[in-house]
Description:
It is a single chain. By secondary structure, the chain is mostly helical. Helices cover 50% and strands 6% of the residues. It has 13 helices and two strands, in the order H-H-H-H-H-H-H-H-E-E-H-H-H-H-H. The protein has helices at 4-7, 16-24, 29-57, 68-87, 93-102, 136-151, 168-186, 190-201, 258-271, 276-279, 285-294, 303-311, 314-322; strands at residues 232-241, 244-253. The protein has a two-stranded antiparallel sheet. Strand 1 and strand 2 form a beta hairpin. Helix 7 (168-186) crosses helix 9, helix 8 (190-201) packs across helix 12 (303-311) and helix 11 runs antiparallel to helix 12. The longest helix is centred in the first third of the chain and has 29 residues, at 29-57. It is flat and about 90 Å long. The two termini are 59 Å apart.
Amino acid sequence: MQDYQLQQARVYTDFSGLNALKNGAKDDKQGALEEVARQFESIFVSEMLKSMRKAGDVFAEGNYLNTNQSEMYRDMFDSQLSLTMAGGQGTGLAEALVRQLSEDIPGTDKQGESLASRKTELADYDRSLPRLSPRLPERVEEVTEVAEANSLVPKAEASALPETFDSPEHFVSTLLPIAEKIAADTGINPRLMVAQAALETGWGRHMIKGDGSEPSHNLFGIKADSRWQGEAVTITTTEFREGVPMKERADFRAYPDYESSFRDYVSFLESNPRYQDVLASADQPHVFARKLQEAGYATDPQYGDKINRIMNRDSLMTLSMGNGGEE
């Protein structure tokens, strides 16, 4: 690397040479390795000089020539001296580093020279296809038979899960595994999500349904505003206006299954700027619930406290521990 900018890396006050060294490594790895080895050797020499200077400082006490200015110029001289020494014959440390590290550069030998097998362009790679096995048609037929057989096996439908729930234990045991699956991807406490769903649905006894009793699988009471492009159901709900409960008709999002409801809940929080501070407390469920209320998730002034009370119930705590839920 004899480029002028790379040579400037040997002047300790000029940082442009270091940037050029970084860019040059993309085209000439071996040259960059040699220059970096010299830089490392200069650091070693600089530290050695500092140790030598410190050993002599004890004799400079009381010397009127020993001032802050003289020490500054001495340090500047030592910094440049270390770079100059490493750039010349040096101590041999840079050469040893190059010999050791050259073996790690793909396509180079121990001396750092490019091997004949080194591939630097796409055209250097073999692009021919391997010879097909004569048993391939037979294997294709086997795969086809297995695929057709699996298509005949009835799959578990989302409707296999209940539309309403008989008890808090039934609610938790059914939905906690789904919440834990979502929590593994998001970090939100699964017990918190189940507790909030319990508050929104009355432990699954009052699930949101349309006028034709069609299930919505909506566990978190998320409304279908103008941003929602999916199915929706319209129901009468209770909203608090200035602390006063009022009945209103509103559209709520509808999902094909409960897992979709959990995932949309997380997506709803992540896409809304006002809930970013809430998500920052994902590892603190009780703080999360309080901040969720403060961010205006619901109009009920006791919303966060109610989630925390449900989360601390024995039924939720016991079942979550049995399912490997978080504490």
